[in-house]
Design brief:
Strand order of the largest sheet: 47-48-50-49-51-52-55-56
Largest sheet: 8 strands, mixed
Radius of gyration: 32 Å
Shape: globular
CATH superfamily of the domain at 597-738 and 794-862: Alpha/Beta hydrolase fold, catalytic domain
CATH topology of the domain at 597-738 and 794-862: Rossmann fold
């Protein structure tokens, strides 16, 4: 019996040893790569994911990773199914040739990767390249010894089929079935074209031009361009079908305005009508009438001027801007559309009408964008009439129907249809309970419309409200809500896959086929979850993708309903995804994150004056609920939309703040939304922020005495304002801040050289009235006038050359705090404007801000730069 017991003891001892060894092994294995805290030395590991292209059948995708700290770029090519992947260091301009080839440029070398055989073709000295639509030809632009590129056409076997030298400009057929290009020899310039079929058809369009070709455009069967001759530029038009070249001769064409000439301004491309019978272009006013300002002359500023002197000096007299005209090729006649009285304009989708206006018509005024009267010009008979008075949404021109007959525009809280043929205006949203104008703008002034989704082929318009799509008949008698987003807090928007042409001058919105349907992007306004859906009359709404992530950068395979996109949230770095019936992960960026402790975020809600507000609370990495942590509150209007944004850790920052840096360094970070009371930001901003702070204190173990405040630009203003109202914050940082609202009001904005009245009356500063209507509001909301109330240690910073928010605001506050004997340090960065562009300055500011908060919120070392003298 004793022997049995002894034997059992040996067995038990052996089992115990095995368990102990396994435990030790597991522990040792686990300690081989334990999670650790992130440090600044690790920041260089992080890259930025940029999606590239998806092949026409969706079998391949490309993407790039950019490493900000080392400024290295790597291009990747990956098959959607399987593990096939190619890596191309320093690769750029990646393009697919169907499903057969992928090409890119590395430094100056073109590399063509055959996707079927794996073979490579390389050519040095290449600046650009393109594939033909039929996938048979490769166009290569390579440097020559004289610095001009040459054009080389190769077939699939890399055989050179065509070779042209001294290329000065080129344009592909939008369908990529051909290329037109100009060449410059020793004594002449010429224009050539190639059409890609089974073989290449080469044509000479014109030779012996007197100047180089510019503003080359190809649309349908027509090519237009300008011969750049300084004294007298010439407009040409080429009919591809008829092989006919026409030039605009001011002496022979009917209606050419005296003293004007064809504009040779860059990027003012001719516009070709659908049938190629008309060419729209710009004429330049004579220099003798251009009112050029002599910089040595006395400046004359008149309060009744429509355009400020500073604007005239920088941009010229707006009335003398280039004028839009139309050349009728059949009649060989010219008709001027815009003039000195109505110098701006755009075209109907059928090119039979122009809409012209004077966007300075109601100056001087105090809005960001001046109202204007819209006039209709009938190109058939030259008739002109005013159709809309005081249109106020100047930056969003009315939507034009694809058939050219209708305009849809917003006015006085309703949407209207203008029928051009019947000269009839119809209010199509009259009496509808749902608002098609911003419900939560939280700024004074007229609410902005949510927008036009499109026009249906059955003669209806699609409008957006805050959540849904509405189909409304053009007479306003029938309206149907197509989606049910309001009930679920989801906002639906139509996704188009095209790019704008000629800005807003040329209409490009397609007809929507409701039977076929369209793709929708979706976002939940309460949670920031997002997705992609498909809607049609037959199937109604079909949800394709829905994630508690931010989904963006959606693109489509040309021949299939396969989509590529990027998704992310705060705790998960961006992923490249493909949807072809189910979502598939192609690539997860920044997988090294799993080696580090990472923070998390939480949605919070709070009530401010009876209204609900939201915020995002970010937890420190490796959060321990038994420990107390400091918190930094970043302020800037409403920030909850950034809830699902992933932020790479980095010291390279224009504003010196990065949420991931702070959570990695043991801070909570709070992004509060703010409910504003017009004319009373001092109290309403403070009230919102403190309500958010109190809510955050109830969610986690945050030290209420170690809370900091930070903001830049308007957020810098809010920061300075808050610390004049409360002593709740242990330290603050304000960058590029307004501090004197009176000075901000009486300021000429540097970007557009116009008064900044709008910023205080109906924009961010939200006074809602002029300085003379409510001067007390301007005074009580100016931090500089309350500097004596500040008891929070403040770090300020600005670019010395900032003219957007003038650096004088930061200096005034510095002097006011100096005179009031307050604790304040101001950093001024030479050569910088609104935000720090220089890498070394961004790093410097990031380090100093962290040191500032470490000292005041963590009891860290007081750096020498913080000390006086």
């Amino acid at each position: 019996m004793q022997a049995i017991k002894s034997q059992h003891r040996e067995i038990f001892r052996g089992i115990f040893c095995l368990i102990l060894l396994f435990t030790i092994y597991r522990s040792a294995f686990g300690q081989a790569q334990p999670k650790r805290m992130l440090t600044t030395k690790d920041y260089s590991l992080w890259s930025q994911l940029s999606p590239g292209q998806i092949s026409k059948n969706g079998n391949w995708v490309s993407y790039s990773l950019y490493y900000k700290h080392t400024q290295k770029d790597t291009l990747f090519l990956q098959r959607v199914s399987g593990n096939k992947k190619y890596v191309f260091p320093l690769g750029t301009k990646g393009k697919f040739n169907g499903e057969s080839d992928f090409a890119y440029i590395s430094r100056d070398t073109l590399v063509v990767q055959n996707l079927k055989t794996g073979t490579l073709y390389k050519k040095a000295g290449v600046t650009d390249f393109e594939f033909s639509a039929n996938e048979k030809f490769l166009m290569i632009f390579a440097n020559q010894s004289n610095g001009k590129p040459g054009l080389e056409i190769r077939d699939r076997t890399n055989k050179v089929l065509q070779n042209s030298v001294d290329i000065t400009s080129y344009r592909l057929d939008p369908a990529q079935n051909g290329i037109v290009y100009s060449t410059a020899g020793n004594s002449d310039n010429s224009l050539q074209m190639m059409l890609f079929n089974e073989s290449i058809e080469k044509r000479t369009i014109i030779e012996n031009l007197n100047g180089p070709v510019q503003n080359l455009i190809w649309k349908g069967n027509t090519i237009a361009f300008i011969e750049h001759v300084a004294t007298e530029p010439v407009l040409f038009n080429y009919d591809i079908i008829k092989h006919k070249i026409s030039s605009l001769n001011p002496k022979n064409v009917k209606g050419f305005p005296a003293d004007m000439k064809v504009s040779n301004a860059r990027f003012k491309y001719p516009i070709i009508s659908k049938d190629g019978s008309r060419v729209f272009f710009w004429l330049k006013e004579p220099k003798s009438k251009s009112n050029v300002i002599d910089p040595a002359a006395v400046q004359i500023w008149n309060t009744k001027d429509k355009q400020l002197f500073a604007s005239k000096k920088q941009f010229g007299d707006y009335r003398m801007s280039d004028k839009l005209v139309v050349w009728d090729l059949k009649e060989n006649s010219l008709f001027q559309l815009t003039d000195k009285d109505l110098p701006s304009g755009f075209l109907s989708a059928d090119y039979n009408y122009a809409f012209i206006y004077d966007n300075y018509a109601y100056e001087p005024q105090s809005q960001q964008h001046s109202a204007y009267d819209l006039h209709l010009v009938d190109l058939k008979n030259g008739g002109k009439k005013r159709i809309i008075e005081k249109y106020v949404f100047g930056e969003n021109i009315p939507s034009r129907s694809p058939d050219g007959r209708y305009l849809c525009y917003a006015k006085q809280g309703n949407w209207w249809i203008y029928d051009i043929q019947q000269d009839l205006h119809t209010n199509i949203t009259l009496g509808m309970s749902n608002s098609f104008f911003t419900e939560d703008t939280n700024r004074p002034g007229e609410d902005e419309p949510y927008g036009v989704g499109g026009w249906t082929k059955d003669g209806e318009v699609i409008l957006y409200d805050r959540y849904d799509l509405w189909k409304i008949s053009l007479d306003g008698k029938v309206n149907t809500r197509l989606t049910k987003g309001r009930e679920t807090q989801k906002s639906f928007r139509i996704k188009f896959f095209f790019t704008a042409i000629n800005g807003n001058t040329e209409a490009q919105m397609p007809n929507l086929d409701l039977d076929k349907g369209f793709l929708l992007t979706t976002i939940n306004r309460e949670t920031r979850a997002s997705g992609v859906s498909y809607w049609s009359l037959k199937s109604d709404l079909k949800e394709l993708i829905w994630e508690n992530r931010k989904i963006e950068q959606l693109s489509k395979a040309r021949n299939k309903d396969t989509y590529m996109y990027v998704d992310q949230n705060f705790t998960s770095a961006p992923r490249l995804m493909v949807y072809d019936g189910i979502p598939k992960q192609i690539m997860q960026s920044n997988t090294q994150q799993e080696n580090f402790y990472w923070g998390k975020n939480q949605r919070i809600e709070y009530i401010v004056d009876g209204k609900k507000a939201k915020g995002a609370l970010f937890y420190p990495a490796a959060y321990n609920p038994d420990l107390k942590y400091p918190m930094v509150v970043q302020v800037y209007e409403r920030q909850f939309p950034y809830f699902n944004d992933y932020e790479n850790p980095t010291l390279i920052s224009e504003v010196g703040f990065n949420v991931t840096n702070f959570t990695a360094q043991g801070y909570f970070v709070l992004y509060p939304d703010i409910n504003y009371e017009y004319g009373n930001l001092r109290e309403s901003v403070t009230k919102s922020v403190l309500a958010a702070v109190d809510t955050a204190l109830g969610k986690a173990n945050i030290d209420p005495f170690k809370v900091g405040l930070i903001g830049s630009s308007f957020g810098g203003y809010e920061t300075d304002l808050i610390i004049t109202e409360t002593n709740r914050f242990a330290a603050a940082v304000a960058g590029m801040a307004w501090t004197d609202v009176v000075s901000a009001y009486l300021y000429v904005g540097d970007m557009f050289k116009r008064p900044d009245f709008f910023r205080t009356e109906n924009h961010q500063l939200r006074i809602g009235k002029s300085l003379f209507e409510d001067m007390p509001a301007y005074l009580k909301n100016s931090p500089v006038l309350m500097a004596d109330k500040v008891n929070t240690p403040l770090l300020g910073w600005a670019g010395e050359d900032d003219r957007h928010v003038n650096t004088s605001h930061s200096m005034e506050f510095y002097l006011a705090l100096r005179r009031a004997n307050k604790e304040h340090t101001l950093l001024v960065y030479p050569g910088e404007e609104h935000g720090l562009e220089k890498k070394e300055n961004g790093i410097d500011l990031s380090v100093r801000i962290m040191q500032w908060f470490d000292y005041y919120l963590k009891g860290g070392k007081k750096q020498d730069w913080m000390k006086s003298n």
